[in-house]
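Explain my protein.
***
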Amino acid sequence: MALQIAEMNATDCGCSPCNPVVASVPGSAGESAFATLTTGSTADSGSTVMVFSNTGWVVPTMILILSVVGGDQYTYQVTGVDRTTNQVTLEYLDYAADGAIPAALPVGTVAVVGGPRGPAQSNPVAIANGGTGAENLADAQANLGATPWAITYGGTGAATKAAAQTALGLGQDPLISTVTGLAQAVTASSTQVAGSDVTMPAAGNWLVSGNCAITITGATFAASRTVTVKVRNTTQGVDVVSTTFQTGIITTATNADQIVVIPPVNYSGGSVNDHLQIFVSISVINSAGTYAVANATLCAVPLRKS
């Protein structure tokens, strides 16, 4: 036990025999991960051998970019290395960024590590890859949704301002047809109120309404008659909205204009250039005097779509 204590004390004393100085030994010098051509070399577009300033970092299959100082760059793949002579066998890859291959590369051309190029893209670039799939404007528009541009692709889906407003649900100015100064007799046949006509500029949702004024002059109805006033899409041959009222029994009555209101309706069955018109009729015509339309107004207001 005493010997062990003595040994511990000797080790802890700090003298040179007990604590010898350990000298550091530097490792071998490293090598730059780039090289330059030490002699001019042919720049064959196929396989070629070039002499580098160092090759310790070069391995087969490595991709190298050779850049001429102040000039173009060229991409090669290493197929062989001779570290004794620093000769490297290279295969030219001809990447998109490469310049036109010269007859020779000069001394001092720098070689650095490159990388493989990404997957080839079609030309023109397909829509799926962010392109248009076309080489001109007309084809691009057709590929992306034709002309006019569809709403799906950021367009309006329309060729005119009015149609675009309707397609986008923005609405547009109302269409109003007003006729005055008439003396058109109301007959048993449904007849257009002369001049009342609205032409729809685009399909969509429209708020259709109107009114007409009927003047009674010395008219007689032995029984109450039914008057029908309606808006009709004459292009498609369908009624849009209709209203009726009763005349009541009257004898040689003369009244100021009787206003007939056509209730508003949300109409979405129209197409471009369809004509809307007001029609009026009576179940049995008056037996005396006159019963006639004096004026009428037809209104179609484009609605905002949801």
